[in-house]
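Re: duplicated header lines in exported structure tokens

Our pipeline writes sequence and tokens for each protein into one text file. With two proteins the header for the second block appears twice in some exports. Here is an export where it did not happen, for reference. First protein block:
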Amino acid sequence: MIDANTDLTWWNLIPQHLDPVLVHIGSFPVHWYGLMYLAAFFTCYQVIWKTVTREGYKVTKEQLDDITAWIIAGVLIGARLGYVLFYNLPYYMDHPTEAILPFSTEGGFHFTGISGMSYHGGLIGAIITTSWFLRKNKLNYWQWINMIVSAVPLGYTWGRLGNFINGELYGRATTASIGMLFPMDHTHTLRHPSQLYELTFEGIVLFFVLQWFYRKEFFKNHMLSLYLIGYGTARFFIEFFREPDVQIGLNEAGLSRGQILCMIMIAAGTTLWIVRAKMAKAKA
């Protein structure tokens, strides 16, 4: 709890002045978070097209439009299913319809919205749908994958901004001046704005790092590996500042579910790099 004598600054109180709802259209609320998804997909689309133009790839707007639709489907479906499976499976085993429908029948039938999306689930979903599309249409698989993952970090900066505006996924308690008071935290405790940490390091910083690597011939065909390792590493350390999911908490080693998934990402990225390097050497 905040001591009554604690001097709070404008920085500490920013979340208190943010409204998750942009506007109401009749009785329907338009949330900032939903618009952030649109901004994320639009941003990635523009970055990928800029890469196509810069590199001189033989890619058409129609191909990019089609693959974008499949990526969006993969992200949304995967993110929702990932949350259900990774973070709250016992609850959804008892309430299966709420996993896919924005309604609840407890205490009467009412609209609840779909709450809970998993980054790792969205990543898996996007990889599956994108891979299926590329194989089906016989497109250059690694050229497309390298372009897409190099654009992704800038896209999900919007998602983290949406989390911040919603006042959700906030960080652990802190006495440092960087802490903020989030309306959803009923303990009235200063907490790390971990959404902004993720926006900065998993998003903006990682984006520019990947763009730099993309321009280097040696790394150009290892973008997926670099992305998995880079994001996994950044997220792993930021999780030490993020409040663990209440229904899961930390494991015996003091690690969150997100950190476990990030360790798998790092291992997968490292393995992929080794395998692709060996394949390239064998062809040489």
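Second protein block, exported in the same file:
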Amino acid sequence: MKILCLSGPNLNMLGLREPGIYGASSLEDIHQSLQDQAAADEMSIDCRQSNHEGELVTWIQQARGNFDAIILNAGAYTHTSIALRDAISAAELPTVEVHLSNIHAREAFRHTSMIASVCAGQIAGFGSHSYRLALEACKDLKA
């Protein structure tokens, strides 16, 4: 099973940016943990991050036919991007939406996800472990 893991804007600042909300782990730490878990489960995972909406859209489009599932932490684009929503829909791959914090317990503008309706599910509020739970979900979706 091949998984594409995408992280959106500002996630390259994990470990530095508001650790009380987002935790002390860097994105590199999270990616390494996912690589280790995927290898133990005889899966492969390609982890990428971009601050650019169009690059995320392109990667999602290119995933079709090349990956079995997508893990996506769209960051702030979660709440604003119809382009990401449409790309996920067009890719026709199971996509798991991920958030480090519980977006439903935060500011009102974070309560709405533009991408949730085209994702297989949403995992939020478990810090860096949210990504690992998403990997488990992808494995279960393919079973």
